[in-house]
Amino acid sequence: MEKKQRDELVREKYMEIKLLEQQFGQIKQQITNLELQLIELKRLNESLEDLSKVKKNSEILVPLGGGIFSKAELKDDKDFFMNVGANIVVKKSREEAKKILDKQIKELESIFVQTEEQLNGIALQLHVGQQELQSLVNGE
């Protein structure tokens, strides 16, 4: 193979590797976001369970966001209000709320597994591409 042709192949392989590295980083970020969403849903599920152990009319701390809490009195520990999208809030029993959360957790876990598989595939492509690039550079 002549030098000019090999140099062109090296450039192409280098660009391919850079693109794969970019995809790898993006998917890694998606995995981090999925992990955070899963943690949030699991904590919410635990909070629902914990509320079942609190007596009615007890004082509780309600998270407002950003680490800020407000004192409140628990009037009803059976029904909850859930945002179902488009700023629509509906009343759900604890059991219904838990079922919805469990379904969301399972869906996210499935997406997480698929995304990890995608990441592993790109990692393999990167490894092979780097070996091919090394062979081209070494003139093999």
Structure in words:
There is one protein chain. The protein is of the alpha+beta class. The protein has a single domain, classed as Helix Hairpins (Orthogonal Bundle), CATH 1.10.287. The protein is 66% helix and 16% strand. The chain has two helices and four strands, in the order H-E-E-E-E-H. It has a two-stranded antiparallel sheet. A two-stranded antiparallel sheet has the order 3-4. The termini are close together.
Secondary-structure element pattern, one letter each: HEEEEH
Known CATH architecture: Orthogonal Bundle
Tell me, what is the CATH class? Mainly Alpha
Mean pLDDT: 92
| CATH fold-level label | Helix Hairpins
Sheet with the most strands? 2 strands, antiparallel
